Amino acid sequence: MSVRNVDDVTLKPVPAGTDTQHQVLIGPGEAPSFALRRFVMQAGGGMPLHTNTVEHEQYVLRGRARVVIGSEEHEVSKGDVVFIPAGTPHSYDTLGDEPFEFLCAVPNGPDTIELVGC
Amino acid sequence: MSVRNVDDVTLKPVPAGTDTQHQVLIGPGEAPSFALRRFVMQAGGGMPLHTNTVEHEQYVLRGRARVVIGSEEHEVSKGDVVFIPAGTPHSYDTLGDEPFEFLCAVPNGPDTIELVGC
What we know:
The structure is a homodimer of 118-residue chains. Chain A has 118 residues and is an all-beta fold. Chain A has one domain: Jelly Rolls. Helix content of chain A is 0%, strand content 63%. Chain A is built from no helices and 11 strands. In chain A, strands 2, 3, 4, 5, 6, 7, 8, 9, 10 and 11 form a 10-stranded antiparallel β-sheet that branches. The relative contact order of chain A is 0.27. At the A-B interface, strand 1, strand 5, strand 7, strand 8 and strand 10 of A face strand 1, strand 5, strand 7, strand 8 and strand 10 of B.
């Protein structure tokens, strides 16, 4: 692919999340180093505390959320940039009445998600 | 860093561009695999045809532009996802009256830019 629109890519539920979907905008089979995804959490949705084996580089497109990263807690909104190191526990809880949407880039390769405290 | 806002990061001119600035949102010293940058081109601005030694994964945040990628020409706008393989000639010319803004992720490591036809 060279160009595609975000609205033309299928959104799929994220099993570990609540009212959370994601879409793969540039997949690991399309680019050599890293993948680009978008996550959409409906108002009231989120992701519980978990770890991944790969780091996340994120950019908030819309909405607000409380994001826990290790021992820190942040309220994030449009234009915020979030870096989550590999292995660091993190969670998302939407705030307000509109969907929370963000881009999330991850390196290609295997990723294991583990819920914390389960 | 864990969280920072795009408006708190310095924008610097891109020497090869016209009315084009960029900012490093997550730098190669902060993340192990790839960097996240934002480019802002004022109306009338752009970048001439050039190559880079690294691939680009891009997401359009605002505005419109004509983007050439190899032998293809695309008009892109908000929500468009653009992949430019390493070594592929590409250029940007803004369209309309508002700034053209996009995120651009690149793998860490040396990158050489070469203008095409100069």
